[in-house]
Amino acid sequence: MVDSLKKPGFEELRPGVKVPAKETLLTPRFYTTDFDEMARMDLSPNEDELRAIIEEFRVDYNRHHFVRDAEFEQSWEHIDGETRQVFVEFLERSCTAEFSGFLLYKELGRRLKDKNPLLAEGFNLMSRDEARHAGFLNKAMSDFNLSLDLGFLTKSRKYTFFKPKFIFYATYLSEKIGYWRYITIYRHLEAHPEDRIYPIFRFFENWCQDENRHGDFFDALMKAQPQFLNDWRAKLWCRFFLLSVFGTMYLNDVQRSGFYASLGLDAREYDIHVIKKTNETAGRVFPLILDVEKPEFYDRLETCVKNNEKLSAIASSNTPKFLQFFQKLPLYVSTGWQFLRLYLMKPIEMTSHQGVAR
Q: Which residues, 6 or more positions from 221, have their beta carbon under 8 angstroms from its beta carbon?
């Protein structure tokens, strides 16, 4: 029987279980790290703040938040066509990102339990939150007769190795940008309830507070390791991670602008707001931030968007693969050049930064 909700293009591992999206530079990544180096970390320079944050984790403000209510118990056949496709893709990307966080935090909690129990507890409690988020998103996918096999995802995904300081930079920004993404959507739909096409968005206000607390945890960890923030290498790496996170989000979201349009949002305006807010937030701990107020910043990202559109057109053409490579090469070079120029833009120094205390 052909399900009226199914749209051609979603491959299935088995009935109702979606084949995970193909891994690309723009898809959520799974991480591993040097667990021994993490275990040796001295938390004493900022232990009081870390303990206060972990106490908030223990309180578990959202223990009873992620409970599906009667509004979910209906047919969702009216969400169809392109809107349904981009919405399911949004749920999948979000679920994969949350599940990636769960796996990393759970493994850190397990590996650090006997060597650095305070750090282990923080990671275990964050893994609890991420598991709830991933499960809630996966259950939402089931309303569209699809779901992810998270066990299969665990085994099939490639894991990227990052040293602890890079894990801190990347996950701090991921959690903070997650906060600003969720709260911006929530506030927009609070003002325009007619655009709330599905009840999951009602949960975003409390949900994003989990993201915010997780980001605060990594903020406190970096302040406990001032060597991750206070030298010239840290400045170079902070610029790199800020640009990577902002650029990836912008290219992803503009490519899927139909999803944001279905919520009454302009993808570009939404991303510019989220980038600005996340950049400001990062300035509380990073030694520098990007100058995202310059029009040049978005002009160069727009060039990358156009390059991506051309790359997609080439990939879907009937041109032989070996010829496609030569057609794509100038576009890859152009995108690389744009990101290099973005990286070399003069950043904004956070001169008040003094390691542990800000």
A: 41, 43, 46, 50, 119, 168
The reported pLDDT for the residue numbered 16 is 80
Torsion 263-264-269-274 (CA) sign: negative
- In order of 76, 122, 356, 358, the CA distances from 45 in angstroms are 52, 17, 7, 13
6 confidence band (pLDDT: 50, 70, 90): very low
Residue 321 backbone phi and psi in degrees, to 5: -55, -40
How far is Cα 303 from Cα 305, in angstroms, rounded to an integer? 5
Q: Which two tokens stand for residue 127?
A: 């893994």
pTM over 0.85: yes
Residues 250 and 255: their CA atoms lie apart, in Å, by 8
- Return the SS3 of 41: coil
Query: Terminal CA-to-CA distance of the chain, rounded, Å?
Result: 61
Residue-wise pLDDT tens digits, 305-339: 999 999 999 999 998 988 999 999 999 999 999 99
